[in-house]
Specification:
Order of helices and strands: EHEHEHEHEHEHEHHEHEEHEHEH
Strand order of the largest sheet: 8-7-6-11-9-12-10
CATH class of the largest domain: Alpha Beta
CATH superfamily of the largest domain: SPOUT methyltransferase, trefoil knot domain
Pfam families: MRM3-like_sub_bind, SpoU_methylase
Protein name: Putative rRNA methylase
Helix content: 25-40%
Radius of gyration: 20 Å
Keywords: Methyltransferase, Transferase
Largest sheet: 7 strands, parallel
GO molecular function: RNA binding; RNA methyltransferase activity
Distance between the termini: 48 Å
InterPro entries: Alpha/beta_knot_MTases, MRM3-like_sub_bind, Ribosomal_eL30-like_sf, rRNA_Methyltransferase, SpoU_MeTrfase, tRNA_m1G_MTases_N
Oligomer: single chain
């Protein structure tokens, strides 16, 4: 069972995993170096542990202990109990969900392993906003996508904000990161997927027509500003668009991923 340890000093070195959570650059360095990630909120913490991620520690306000009592009973990691004001001092924001956990990352599977048995995959190219990555994972998981593939420069799905927005979908949906961006689309084609580039280009066809009757589909979505790179658009088998009302030229990539996943799931 997790040992409950009450702390009253924001500078306590045992709280290092939780310090300055709003500092994205610092957190990237720390989490990569230490091989950890943070989960926030009762549901997300529970889902992370149930998915097999080993806790390093927990950080909780006293009133949130009962909600995760069963998780704490099964864990050997320490649980640091602090006031909500102290948690805010340490993390840099109000932890309104009351519970945080630091967990050990698992080794990532390779791209061939992730797509081997998949029929539908979502491929994210250089999406750097953690909220958008988390939203794409949540939509993919909800709409029966088998796996997610990330370009090398995509934001980290296990960053706290991504995990929170995805509501833990990143723990259960298989994902891998490409090592070779330049020929990334070709790797998917070689694995038997029809690659469908989501774009607003004038030669793009309605996405429902583009995916109708296809067996294995890799749906390619690009970064928040410019969209898919020209290289990936040229490499794709099909260029597809979500039809929109006159005067509206695009959707946020998170919204576009939800609509596209729904259409692909119905093919």
């Amino acid at each position: 069972m997790a040992e409950l340890i009450e702390l009253d000093d924001a500078g306590d070195p045992r709280l290092a995993d939780y310090r300055d959570l709003r500092d994205v650059q610092l957190r990237r360095h720390l989490e990569a170096e230490q091989g950890l990630f943070l989960a926030e909120g009762e549901k997300v913490v529970r889902r992370a542990v149930e998915a097999g991620y080993e806790p390093r520690s927990f950080l909780m306000a006293l009133r949130w202990l009962p909600g995760l009592e069963d998780v704490l009973e099964r864990s050997a990691a320490p649980c640091y109990v602090v006031t909500e004001s102290l948690a805010e001092q340490v993390t840099g924001f109000h932890v309104h969900r009351g519970a945080l956990a630091s967990l050990k990352r698992l080794p990532l599977p390779s791209l061939p392993e992730v797509v081997a048995d998949a029929r539908t995959v979502v491929v994210l190219e250089d999406i750097v906003d953690h909220t958008n990555v988390g939203a794409a994972f949540r939509s993919a998981a909800a709409l029966d996508v088998d796996a997610v593939v990330l370009s090398p420069r995509c934001a980290d799905p296990l960053y706290r904000r991504s995990v929170k927005v995805a509501m833990g979908a990143v723990f259960h949906l298989p994902w891998a990161r490409m090592h070779d961006w330049y020929d990334g689309v070709g790797q998917l084609s070689a694995a038997g997927f029809t690659t469908v580039a989501l774009t607003t280009g004038p030669d793009a066809v309605d996405i429902e027509k583009a995916v109708a009757g296809l067996d294995k589909v890799a749906l390619l979505l690009g970064s928040e500003g410019p969209g898919l790179s020209e290289r990936w658009q040229r490499s794709a088998d099909v260029r597809a668009v979500i039809p929109m009302a006159a005067g509206i030229d695009s959707l946020n990539v998170a919204a576009a991923s939800a609509v596209a996943c729904y259409v692909v799931a119905r093919r």
